[in-house]
Amino acid sequence: MFNIRPYVDGFVTKWNRQTGNYVSWVQEEDAESTNSLFQTWADNRIWWLFPPISILQQVVNKIILEKPSAILITPDWKTLSVMAKLNRINMGCEILPKITQCCPEGLGISAANSSLPPGRLIAWRI
Questions:
Q1: How far apart are CA 56 and CA 72, in angstroms?
Q2: Residues in the chain with pLDDT values less than 70
Q3: Distances (CA, A) of 72 to 30, 107, 114
Q4: What does the buried/exposed string (b/e) look like for 83-121 if buried means 16 or more CB atoms within 10 Å of the residue's CB?
Q5: 115, 109 in Cβ contact below 8 A?
Q6: Taking Cα atoms as reference points, which of 79, 90, 76, 80 lies closest to residue 121?
Q7: Distance between CA 122 and CA 97 in Å, rounded?
């Protein structure tokens, strides 16, 4: 996808990271730091960003401010509040499979008696 390889995963734990380097929500021995929103993204690395929907607006605002090199994963929802901003700042996008086909439900989702959001995902090259 996009012929680039992300270097650091911004919103994960050691159990679901997609890269060797990652920033976790909680203190973890292998994580390079905690809370990606407090880190500098404009650091000449390519970031893999698949944030919770609840902080997507903050993430997009940080992208606009810092202008990092990144791949951002979001739901493909026409009503997504950040869709207009993403259409202005992206260098390309790719529609991904349905969320249920590419994202296994983690323990947190089942513990909260919740489910994955419906629909497809979009990968945005930022």
A1: 10
A2: 105-116
A3: 23, 23, 23
A4: beebeeeeeebeebeebeeebeeeeeeeeeeeeeeeeeb
A5: yes
A6: 76
A7: 9
pLDDT, tens digit, 9 for 90 and up, residues 61-96: 999 999 999 999 999 998 999 999 999 999 999 999
Residues composing the chain: 126
The residues, any chain, with a CB within 8 Å of residue 118's CB and separated by 6 or more, are 99
**60: closest CA among 73, 79, 78, 46?**
73
DSSP state of 8: E
Q: State the number of CA atoms in the 13 A half-sphere of 74 facing the CB.
A: 26
Residue type, 17: R
